Each structure stands twice: as structure tokens, then as C-alpha cells.
Amino acid sequence: MGCGKNYDTGSCVADILKDIVDAQNDIVENCCDTSCEQSINDLLCTNEVTNDLDTVPVILYCKDCKPFKGFGTTKNHHNKMNPILSSFIFRVKKVDKNNCAILELLLSDGESCGFDHMKDPTDQNTEDLEATGICITVDLDCFCHVTCLPAIRAFH
């Protein structure tokens, strides 16, 4: 038997948290100002005439609970590699049937975050995030948590 009143998932923590959510939902409307659900709803909202949002920025966390930082680069007009950039914030481009995803690094306009510039996501500027064109492929089975940021327009 589970630890919760109404659930038996095999996880005492999950059972109790589900009971808490049920009790809270009975008392107040369960709305979050920022959540994956809210960001997706904002992205898909067609009620606003000026809705030009095209991206739900995400931060992924590895199974050790540390935020994932991706790296990549582009070529300059002399066909030489630019400095390597890094980001904790991504735009999901594609997820395949094997749980592999293509993620695009998002950076603020003019930001060039090298290897040592950012130690965690709070070091990254989120103002005016833009698509970089730098994409990486990841195995989604390596992650245990995702944080969705408010929907934005990343392509200008």
C-alpha cells in the first residue's frame, strides 16, 4: 500500500505529493504564472492579434540535478570557426521516437558566452533571447527535470 491516501505509485513521495495537489485543487484554482503548460498556452494563443511568440525556452537538468549547458559554434565569413558559445537555455527543434532531441542554443542579442562565463542558469541573460542557429543533439533519457520559461519570439 502507498503512503498517500488515494494513490499507490510505488513512491511514497509521489503518493503524498499527488494527495497534496488534490487537496490544494479542491481549495483554490491551480494556476501558475510560469510553467510549461502556461508557456505552451501562451505560444498557441490565437486570441491576441499581436501574438508573435514562436519559442518556449527550456532549461534541462541532468539526473544529478545539475542544469545542462550546451556548447557549439558557427563559422565566420572566412570559413573559420568562431569562438565556442555556451547556453543553459534551448529551443526544442525536434524529438524523435528514440527520445533524441535537437536543441538550439538561445542567447541574448550580442551575448557571447564562452566556457567559463556562466556557472549556472542565473548567470545567463534572458533579456531578448534569440535563436543562434547552433543546434546540438541530446538523449532525453539523460534528463530528470525541465524548466519552461515564458514563451518568447526568438526569431526576429
Give a written overview of the molecule.
This protein is an alpha+beta fold and 156 residues long. It folds into 2 domains: 1-30, no CATH class; 36-148, no CATH class. It is 16% helix and 28% strand. Strands 4-5-6 form a 3-stranded antiparallel β-sheet, with no helix packed on it. Strand 4 and strand 5 (100-108) form a beta hairpin. It is elongated and about 65 Å long. The mean pLDDT is 83.
Category by helix and strand content: alpha+beta
Number of helices: 2
Written as H for each helix and E for each strand, in order along the chain, the element string is: HHEEEEEEE
Q: Give me the side-by-side strand order of the main sheet.
A: 4-5-6
Main beta sheet: strand number and arrangement?
3 strands, antiparallel
Distance from first to last alpha carbon: 54 Å
Helix content: 10-25%
Number of strands: 7
Shape: elongated
Number of domains: 2
Strand content bin:
25-35%
